[in-house]
Amino acid sequence: MKKMALTLLCVAALSACTATTPELEPLPGSLTYGENASSRKTRAAPGTMIQNRFLHKGSMVFETYEVQPDHTYKLVRRSVADTWPPGD
After folding, report:
1. Is 51 contained in some domain?
2. Residue 7 lies in a domain
3. Which residues, at least 6 apart from 70, have a Cβ–Cβ distance to it below 8 Å?
4. Which site among 34, 37, 46, 49 is 20 to 30 Å from 69 CA-CA?
5. pLDDT confidence of residue 34
């Protein structure tokens, strides 16, 4: 019985590892906001990381995009600074 319980616990723990994080949605000011994926392409090599920053509702937004094999952008990271410039 203990073996069965331990096995079920391990299966449950490992199944949680396969959960994916939700896709980030573009905000107004994002490089891909309001576009379909094929409308913005770059000559940068696939895997290149591109940075973007912009103001959104009074906060500074920092985004990182990864160039995909078809040369489109994929939003992979976003952080928001509540006050801008820093130190205010």
Report:
1. yes
2. no
3. 38, 41
4. 34
5. 79
Sheet arrangement for strand 49-56: 49-56, 59-67, 73-81
CA distance 6 to 3: 5
Number of domains in the chain: 1
- What is the distance in angstroms between the CA of the first residue and the CA of the last residue of the chain? 60
Average pLDDT, the chain: 78
- Please check whether residue 15 lies inside any domain of the structure: no
Strand locations in the chain (E): 49-56, 59-67, 73-81
pLDDT for residue 18: 47
CA distance 81 to 63: 11
Q: Is residue 88 part of a domain?
A: yes
Tell me which residue range forms the domain holding 45: 22-88
Residues of the chain with pLDDT under 50: 18-19
